[in-house]
Specification:
Blueprint: H1 2-25, H2 33-49, E1 73-75, E2 87-88, H3 91-105, E3 111-117, E4 120-127, E5 130-136, E6 142-144, H4 147-151, E7 168-176, H5 179-191, H6 200-208, H7 213-217, E8 222-231, H8 244-254, E9 262-264, H9 267-280, E10 288-295, H10 298-304, E11 314-317, E12 322-335, E13 340-352, E14 355-361, H11 365-371, E15 378-383, E16 390-394, E17 419-420, E18 428-430, H12 436-447, H13 459-467, H14 482-486, H15 493-506, H16 511-517, H17 525-534, H18 538-543, H19 546-550, H20 557-568, H21 570-581, E19 601-605, H22 613-622, E20 626-627, E21 637-640, H23 647-654, E22 657-659, H24 661-668
Helix pairs in contact: 1-2, 12-13, 16-17
This protein binds 2-(butylsulfanyl)adenosine (IVH).
């Protein structure tokens, strides 16, 4: 009996796979939707009765399995990181790329041209022909595991026939949301009173990075593939074909969907293809933000190599941004987390390349004067790739005389404090130290995904917390009690538990996230990582001098100064203290080797009998400590050798501990 079921299951799956490919990849179905649904129902039904016979490659998994607790990190193949692409914004820049190829290769290579899909990069791993693991690109080295979610995308084959003997290979491509699917997700969300996705790319990312695969399954995502990486047992790439276009043909034969690759003999043909594709890119039904030009031959690709960010054998050509005209209904002022006031144009909503634009940043008052943008004006608005829409210029012929000139308010629209604009700066700021709008933005940034990543703590909740005086700074989040939350609007017991748990979990976030979350000027996510790597704790970072910070490769003078200024401010020191009390992790990534002198600051004065200055310095540093030249309150020890200078007196005045050579050797563990 079980044998009969097995056979029926296998036959059903094969049949469904064939129809899936015909429908979702080849666009030429042989049966009606309802016939297909009937087959799928039979499969799901049979599998639910015989769970022991469910396989990893069963199309029944398309409906989405059990929700996960978290998205786990996955390391991409270290031999082939997921690089990004260099951009060309004009035909001139594309020609320069061609010029570099000729210069480096001594010949003009054949190149492929293919659409650059505006979605998110993913990696699919196949073993013995079965799709076993899928991940997002992430930072190119590590992504998030989203296998179950990717299985719900019908055009991703769950089982394929790989070339003979190839046990393992990876396919990379772009998951995207077709425009019509995007419209339907948003109109449904609108009906449910949920926040709308700004564009298909955000919607695709939000739909794929889901804990519940059933949500992903409901979103009609799709995928185009753009790279094939066959690998040996050791993970190193092996040779199966020798060019990109041959790899794409092979992928097509295996049933992977692709957006179309055109092989061109040289740069002249590339330019023609770029122009031809530009003419039709609005008619595709999905967002394309350009084309990718790739050197076709793998041998030549290897010869050209890559920088740390992108390959030298490929470039993304971006078409000029798209524009539309619309009216400026109002100019409002937004208060940022540093108190900066940014004027924003509220626009009559207008469609630009598939998404609706209703706001555009005007940057600052000078910019508004320069472009002479008035309330009521008809303006050109531009949207290009990643950037926020911007107002390009005013259509002066449309002026009626009823337009109003904008003036920066004298008082902060959020808290009524004075607005000031420091001499020589373009940005006006709110002077209020307790401005709720600033605080809102600070908290929003603090809990955002790139920072402390506190799920469930979004703008709506933060607004309520502030309005009720439940938090006064970011550390206040850690003092919230469950009872504080249950009294809030739309906060069921379960939601309160989720919020508490998310806040609690964030206490353990690595230091670099906290540093970024604090919003120290010039400390972005990347700089925060560098700082956390170079210090073993927040305390040693707080003690670091400008010179020490500048000595770290990649840390420039503005960052160094800004960090020192931040920790010199009493209110920030107090904030760090309350975070410490709240049990927030303040430990850095740097492990001091001996650990014994971790974070300790030394000043050496006078002559040591047993070692030279440099040797002493190296010994201290090898144990995690640091040596500076001037004595300050931050100094932990002054090591006084023979004939010490005035530094000893200074140390006495400041109450810094003075030790002799013997004690110093004890500290170093050398006697
Ligand atoms: S090739 C090493 N081809 O664009 C080559 N990428 O800006 C890197 N993308 O991370 C990728 N369409 O997610 C390639 N036809 C295409 C693409 C494409 C979209 C994405 C991809 C990549 C990003 C780089």
């Amino acid at each position: 009996m079980a044998d009969g079921v097995s056979r029926r299951l296998e036959k059903l799956r094969d049949e469904i796979r064939r129809h899936e490919r015909l429908y979702y990849v080849d666009n030429s179905p042989e049966i009606s939707d309802s016939q297909f649904d009937a087959l799928m129902r039979e499969l799901v039904d049979l599998e639910s009765k015989h769970p022991e016979l469910v396989t990893e490659d069963s199309p029944a998994l398309r409906v989405g399995g059990e929700p996960a607790d978290e998205l786990k990190p996955v390391a991409h193949n270290p031999n082939v990181p997921m690089l990004s692409l260099d951009n060309a914004y004009s035909l001139g820049e594309l020609e320069e790329f061609g010029g570099r190829l000729v210069k480096n290769l001594g010949e003009e290579p054949a190149c492929t041209v293919e659409p650059k899909i505006d979605g998110l990069g993913v990696s699919l791993i196949y073993e013995d022909g079965v799709f076993v693991q899928g991940a997002t690109r992430g930072d190119g080295v590590t992504g998030e595991e989203v296998t179950a979610n990717l299985r719900t995308i019908h055009s991703i084959p769950l089982r394929v026939h790989p070339p003979r003997g190839l046990k393992r290979f990876e396919v990379r491509g772009e998951v995207y949301m077709p425009r019509d699917a995007f419209e339907s997700v948003n109109s449904q969300r609108e009906a449910e009173g949920l926040a709308l996705f700004a564009n298909p790319r955000n919607c695709a990312a939000g739909s794929l990075r889901q804990l519940d695969p059933k949500v992903t399954a409901s979103r009609n995502l799709d995928m185009f593939v753009y790279a094939f990486i066959p690998t040996g047992q050791d993970g190193r790439p092996v040779k199966v074909v020798d060019s990109h276009h041959a790899a794409m043909a092979l992928l097509a034969a295996m049933g992977f969907k692709q957006a179309g690759v055109k092989l061109c003999k040289g740069m002249k043909e590339v330019a023609e293809e770029v122009a031809r594709f530009g003419g039709k890119r609005d008619t595709l039904g999905f967002d394309v933000d350009g084309v990718v030009v790739k050197v076709d031959s793998y041998r030549l690709q290897a010869e050209l190599g890559a920088t740390s960010k992108f390959p030298r054998w490929a470039i993304a050509f971006k078409y000029p941004a798209q524009q539309a005209t619309t009216r400026v209904l109002d100019i409002q002022v937004q208060v940022g987390r540093t108190g900066a006031l940014t004027p924003v144009a509220i626009l009559e909503p207008v469609e630009i390349s598939g998404s609706t634009v209703a706001r555009a940043t005007l940057h600052n008052e000078d910019e508004i004067r320069r472009k002479d943008i008035r309330i009521g004006d008809t303006v050109f608005v531009e949207k290009g790739g990643e950037v926020i829409p911007k107002v390009v210029k005013v259509v002066e012929s449309k002026r009626t005389g009823a337009e109003r000139v904008f003036h920066m308010p004298q008082k902060c629209p959020a808290c009524g404090s004075a607005v000031f604009r420091p001499e020589g700066e373009v940005v006006a700021r709110c002077a209020g130290s307790a401005c709720p709008a600033q605080l809102l933005e600070k908290l929003r940034h603090f809990s955002s995904r790139g920072a402390m990543d506190i799920e469930h703590v979004g703008p709506a909740l933060i607004e309520q917390l502030l309005a009720r005086g439940l938090v006064h700074d970011v550390s206040g989040l850690y003092r919230l009690r469950r009872d504080d939350l249950t009294g809030l609007e739309r906060m069921a017991d379960k939601s309160a538990d989720n919020v508490m748990e998310a806040i609690n979990k964030s206490r353990a976030q690595p230091l670099h996230r906290l540093l970024f979350a604090l919003g120290i000027r010039y400390v972005g996510a990347r700089v925060a990582k560098i700082l956390a790597k170079n210090f073993d704790s927040m305390d040693s970072l707080a003690k670091a001098s400008e010179a020490e910070l500048k000595a770290i490769p990649e840390i420039g003078p503005s960052v160094a100064q800004s960090v020192v200024v931040f920790f010199a401010q009493e209110s920030n020191v107090r904030l760090v203290e309350s975070l410490r009390e709240a049990g927030v992790n303040l430990k850095g990534d740097k492990k001091a080797s001996g650990g014994a002198l971790a974070g300790k600051q030394f000043v050496i004065t006078g002559t040591l009998a047993s070692m030279g200055r440099n040797e002493a310095k190296e010994s201290i540093e090898s144990m995690g400590g640091r040596v500076t030249s001037a004595v300050s309150k931050k100094t932990d020890y002054v090591v006084a050798g023979a004939d010490p200078g005035s530094k000893v007196e200074k140390a006495g005045e400041l109450g810094v501990k003075i030790i002799g050579e013997k004690e110093f050797l004890d500290l170093l563990g050398q006697k």
